[in-house]
Amino acid sequence: MVESPILTSLFGMVDQFIAFIPTLVAVIILMIVALIVGKILGKIGAKVLDKIGLDDLIDKTFLGGMIKRTESTTVAMFDNIIKWFVYIIFAVIIIDILKIQIVADFLAQIILFLPLVISAAIILIIGLLIVDFLAGLVKTILIASGIDERKRS
Description:
By secondary structure, the chain is mainly alpha-helical. It has one domain (5-152). Helix content is 89%, strand content 0%. The chain has helices at 5-51, 54-59, 62-69, 74-97, 101-145, 147-152. The radius of gyration is 27 Å and the shape is rod-shaped.
């Protein structure tokens, strides 16, 4: 057989593609597993939050009203949050397998930042719940004291 740079390059490309096939299969399997695990964990997390009554508690607040305006529910919102968190974790694993270091570093930074975002969201929700409770309490006190009746006279 005649050796030429074009044939050598072509054979090298075919060899690299054949060597990449197991990695490609692993990535496809991980993507399928990510979809399944994300959906399952999202549904489980949403059911747990629904069972503890978080849905009913948030629906009574200003935040619940904002969620209802999006034509969604609190449980569906948490289902999507959990699902996407799982997808991001699997994306980091897949990108690490593919050895795309720049993207892996970027996603790692995002994942390291997520606890801050989650804690801020929890504090925001607790703050909104406290504000709604205090607003209802003040309204009840004002109605019980008869101040709103004096104002009309």
